[in-house]
Amino acid sequence: MTRIVLLGGGVGGSMVSNQLARQLKPEILRGEVEITVINESDTHVYQPYFLYMAFDQAVPADAKRPERAVLNNQIKLVVGHAERVDREAKDVVMGDGAHIPYDYLVIATGSRPAPETVPGLVEGGHIFYTEEGALKLRDALAEFTGGRVLVTVGVPHKCPVAPVEFTLMVRDWLDTHGFESSEVLYTYPIGRLHSLEPVAAWATEIFDQRRIDSRTFFNVETVDSEKKTVTTLEGDTVSYDLLVAIPPHLGQDIVKRSGLGDAGNWIATDRHSLLMQGTDNIYVLGDATNLPISKAGSTAHFQADVVSSNLVNRIHGGLGSVRYDGKVFCFIEAGNDEATYVKFDYQHPPKPQPPTEMIHLYKLAFNKMYWLSAAGIL
Amino acid sequence: MATEAKIIDARGSFCPGPLMELIKGIRQEAVGVVLEVWSSDRGSAKDIPEWVARAGHEVVGNVEADNIFKIQVKKLR
């Protein structure tokens, strides 16, 4: 029997396992293939809703479904803490001591915001990249009394358009809640407003129209929660009344415990095959890789198609030759009930379109349709 | 160019891009380490040194071959 184990049941793990379960159904029913998903939680969370939760436009229940309900019935789900991957024994060692053996391992463990890596940030800043943080920020906005809203961006971070989206949405929120005179100051680590040049050009124009100030080359080194200031690696100190920080992210600790990653717990991954470098039976996708591409659900989505195609092909006797081309697609909420999108890959830069109401409505619809993506259908 | 460097292969990276990949490397590596960023974006040869100067690190190499820019940066603080 061929055992395929997926570590992580988020976007990448759910999509790959569901695609495999459908395409390998005859082999599974004959007992020739077994697919197991290991997930820390019994709940699947659609993280893009956190942004909306911060503005009280969604509540946690909107973002959650039981992981079991997301996965095909042919998939075995193990809910529990995975301690480490033992490459020599080819198994995953669970926190309770159980061993889950694999022939093929798919690592889709994602990333996590790590505000604790910036001194003072946990005490002085708000984040909307977790459910708890988004709700805390929602409450802070409800009690906001005016002043400067400072947005900072750590490196690396997932969902690279979320900082721009948040900034436009918070300007909209301030203007409609009696805080037209409050300042929004957006900052960014490099010398323009976004890593994607066309998005940076678009943001420059729209920020000007919407009275949003900005600073570049701004990498937060420390936060002083008593004085309400941030100090950067570049030597600037800026005050705030409400600090909204996109913190630097780290790969998951299991990567470190297993000795699979670099200093940030990112796994060295072949950019085309998505095999962990130096292996022929461990695939890595989504945020967990060290690839220089956006950490986003859509990245995991397009990578899932490659990983599942190659696994099915290899189980059928092929070589697994489908290559990932670096494709990423991101919606960008623009505030004022409008949105746009960008699409790019390793060879082709993005060309953003002007924001429209129709794209905003499609994004809202996709938030509902996401569950078809996780099911490996859409 | 330094002979021992940790490679950051950021070819074809539009987002987050070569400079953001370098900042990630600088944040997670120890003082004294040399990072070598590979970029297919001509702008990197200019914007990486600009940030490195502002952040107090040092460019120890900057070469181009076959439209790939290789920029070495030593972490100083």
Account of the 3D structure:
The complex is a heterodimer of chains A (378) and B (77). In chain A, strand 14 and strand 15 form a beta hairpin. The mean pLDDT of chain A is 96. Chain A has two domains: 2-110 and 252-327, FAD/NAD(P)-binding domain (3-Layer(bba) Sandwich), CATH 3.50.50.60; 113-249, FAD/NAD(P)-binding domain. Chain A has helices spanning 11-23, 25-29, 49-54, 67-70, 121-124, 131-142, 162-176, 197-209, 253-257, 297-315, 357-374, and strands at residues 2-7, 33-39, 43-45, 64-66, 76-79, 82-86, 91-94, 99-101, 104-107, 111-113, 148-153, 183-187, 212-215, 220-224, 229-232, 237-239, 242-246, 249-251, 282-284, 328-333, 339-344. Chain A starts with a strand and ends with a helix. Chain A has 378 residues and is of the alpha/beta class. In chain A, the strands form seven sheets. Chain A has a five-stranded parallel sheet. With 77 residues, chain B is α+β, with helices and mostly antiparallel strands. Chain B has a single domain, classed as 2-Layer Sandwich (Translation Initiation Factor IF3). Chain B has a four-stranded mixed sheet, covered by helices on one side. The longest helix of chain B is centred in the middle third of the chain and has 12 residues, at 44-55. Chain B is globular, with a radius of gyration of 11 Å. The A-B interface holds A 117, 155-156, 160, 189-191, 194-196, 217, 219, 233-235, 248, 262-264, 271, 292-294, 326, 328, 344-347, 349-350 and B 8-21, 23-24, 27-29, 47, 50-51, 54-56.
Blueprint of the fold:
The complex is a heterodimer of chains A (378) and B (77).
Chain A: E1 2-7, H1 11-23, H2 25-29, E2 33-39, E3 43-45, H3 49-54, E4 64-66, H4 67-70, E5 76-79, E6 82-86, E7 91-94, E8 99-101, E9 104-107, E10 111-113, H5 121-124, H6 131-142, E11 148-153, H7 162-176, E12 183-187, H8 197-209, E13 212-215, E14 220-224, E15 229-232, E16 237-239, E17 242-246, E18 249-251, H9 253-257, E19 282-284, H10 297-315, E20 328-333, E21 339-344, H11 357-374
Parallel strand pairs in A: 1-2, 1-9, 2-5, 9-19, 11-12, 11-17, 12-13
Antiparallel strand pairs in A: 3-4, 6-7, 7-8, 10-18, 14-15, 15-16, 20-21
Chain B: E1 6-9, H1 18-28, E2 34-39, H2 44-55, E3 58-65, E4 68-74
Parallel strand pairs in B: 1-2
Antiparallel strand pairs in B: 2-4, 3-4
